[in-house]
Amino acid sequence: MGTNNSTNLSPSTKNALAFLMTLLAFAIMLGNAVVILAFVVDKNLRHRSNYFFLNLAISDFFVGAISIPLYIPYVLFEWEFGHQICVFWLIVDYLLCTASVYNIVLISYDRYLSVSNAVSYRAEQTGIWKTAALMGAVWALAFIVHGPPILTSDPWVEEEKICEPGFLSVWYLLLISSTFEFLIPVISVAYFNIYIYWSLWKRGSIIRCKSHRALTSPVSSSNCGHSFRCGLFSRTSLPEPKETAASVHSGKQRRKSSLLLSLRTQMNHSIIVSKMCSLAHSDSVILHQREHLELLRAKKLAKSLAILLGVFAICWAPYSLFAFVLSTYPRDKRPKTYWFDITFWLQWINSLVNPFLYPLCHKRFQKAFLKIFCMKKQAISSQNRSTSS
């Protein structure tokens, strides 16, 4: 994977590339370590969807901790791996990269479930064992895709000092590997994102219709209250006098008192009706506002997932295409090009970008990051006070 290409480089160029690669590995570890530490600091992050981001951060962290540090001396300084180290590095590297891909698929699938079946999704939030099983299934499936082909072949070529998995030399094995590693994940994530956007558009149209009805609801409620008051007037209208001439004075007094009582009752009922109508209208407005806020949050999540898919496709598509083209050539007749090494590095750059795509755009993660930095500032200030004293 590029050993023949690196022999033509000058020592200063190799040292500069080694520095940049080390800097990239450190940045990958730092970015994903902050995400992992956020789960320790903030307990509010510990629910189902965020655990999948924790799984993604763990796989990306070890890309910077294991894969890149072993690759630097091999590709730049021609360190001879040997059979055991070669097998270990290939299994770890392909396992971590494939697990990172499958974690992105799992995150998209989780958001798909939250949109397609929100009621059962909320009920399953407390199922920690199911969440742990899904996280473990990602690693098991990633090992099944690349582990057996690497273990059953001899990846270390002693004559050429090249560490390369055997399926890269056979086009149909590489096609199967690329299908499970790139094509199926990118198609799945694209389907989940399209469905999420379609569902959000549908929900948005329903909410807009409800908000339009809510604007016209005060008129109907006032009409309802007016009709109710009219009914009260009709029921409390004065009866026709049937008294005799001898009891005219006493009848007038009774009618006057009954009129006052009916007026008080009518006023109390009208006040109650108006309050009920205003409360119902305010409750509907609050409900529409809450639905609108939930829709905005869901749109932000869908946007972040779309960006996650775009970056994943950009980082993985060139390597899959180059690897498939090079597999059609015999190993000793492959064209020597640096572009294949660049596409190989794009996969690792994806591990650098992942911590910034979703967690840093999520308010809960932002609050957790602020807690981490505040704790560091407090620790630094306490150390300064202790040294000054």
How do the strands and helices of this protein lay out in sequence?
Elements: H1 3-6, H2 11-41, H3 48-77, H4 83-116, H5 118-123, H6 128-152, E1 156-157, E2 162-163, H7 171-235, H8 248-327, H9 339-357, H10 363-388
Helix pairs in contact: 2-3, 2-9, 2-10, 3-4, 3-9, 4-6, 4-7, 4-8, 7-8, 8-9
First and last CA, distance: 57 Å
Radius of gyration: 35 Å
Kindly estimate the percentage of residues that lie in beta strands according to DSSP.
under 5%
Helix proportion range = over 70%
Q: Mean of the pLDDT scores? A: 75
pLDDT < 50 stretches: 225-248
Coarse shape: elongated
Number of strands: 2
Q: Find the structural class using helix and strand composition.
A: mainly alpha
| Fourth-tier CATH superfamily name | Rhodopsin 7-helix transmembrane proteins
In DSSP terms (H or I, runs of 4 or more residues), the helix count works out at 10
User: How many distinct domains?
Assistant: 1
Strand order across the largest sheet: 1-2
The CATH C-level name is Mainly Alpha
